[in-house]
Amino acid sequence: MQNCRSAIEELVIEEIKAQTASLGRAAREKINLSEVAAYALNRLPPMYATSQRGWQQQRNRARAELKQQITSNVRRALVGVRQDSLRPADPLPENEFHSQARSLAKLQEILGQDNLKWKDVPDALEAAFMTIKLKGALSYTYVSPSRRNAMDVKQYIKRSKVQNYSWKSRKSQREQATPESGSNARYAREFASYMYCASFDFVNVLENPVLAVVHRQLARLHPALIDQIKPEEVAAYTLNRLPPMYATSQRGLKEQRYRVKAELAKDIILMVREGISIVVNSPARAAAPLPFEKFGQEQESALDKIRQILHIDDINWRNVAEIVEDALERVRSGEISLHAIGRTNLEEELSSQQQSTREQWR
What we know:
The chain is mainly alpha-helical. The protein contains 18 helices and four strands. It is 66% helix and 2% strand. Strands 1-2 form a two-stranded antiparallel ribbon. Helix 11 packs across helix 13 (231-239), helix 11 (207-219) runs parallel beside helix 14 (250-281) and helix 13 (231-239) crosses helix 14 (250-281). The chain is globular, with a radius of gyration of 24 Å.
């Protein structure tokens, strides 16, 4: 859930990193860190929040009251959880995550920028296209080393420098122009919190069933009353009063879902109804959203620019990584020209087969 996060997840991951920092690479590779996290999280209280204030309160409470429990549960998990070479690979399906951070992590890998932010993705994409074009120009010059072609390449390089197509140079200029400050440090911490789950493959199986029940219960209310209720607040209230049910594999996912239906179905409905009552009767107050909201805004701005660059309207955070990767590969192979990307609709150069492939992204 984008607007409802458990603060204790990040603290568990921090503890895992701290306890494994001294291990050698071979030792770390024998440990499934996602399973370590799930093991610990299933033995700790959930701490969901939907606002910046709630997020900070939950983090402070966890640090003050649960530090020892977090440390001991992670230690036990590291002893008990190991990679089993005889166990068949059974990872969670990708659609279980639906994470904007994971989508950004894929773009970081595709564009070769480990610390890429959403706001920098359009520049990085343009830089990638320019790199492909430059390599093509240099290759063509090498094959046909005429003076005119050599001059064209030199002029292109000169224009590229003047127009600052290099994403790295733009980033360097921004960093030099903006000295380190408290706001920058806070931004970096919040970005790290936003991205922490991208490298871990676990889910709390309760999240989707609880949110589904919330929406069903809200649908029964008067429309005027529905407008006063944020579904994520009811979901957070409910999840904080139910036992966590984290899974890291398809088998674990299936088992936890069975437990939800067999053991918790009635409790979920009761907790959701209670949560709705609490939210309705609580005094309305303005609350700043989770500190990751800014990255959602940066994401929307970046997606708008990417749509303009590629001339594809139906790009969203779920399919952007696949579309960008495919566009780069087609330009690299010569299947699509940079001229087409820059000045015409990209879809005009796609065959019917390619268009059907794009339909799967939507």
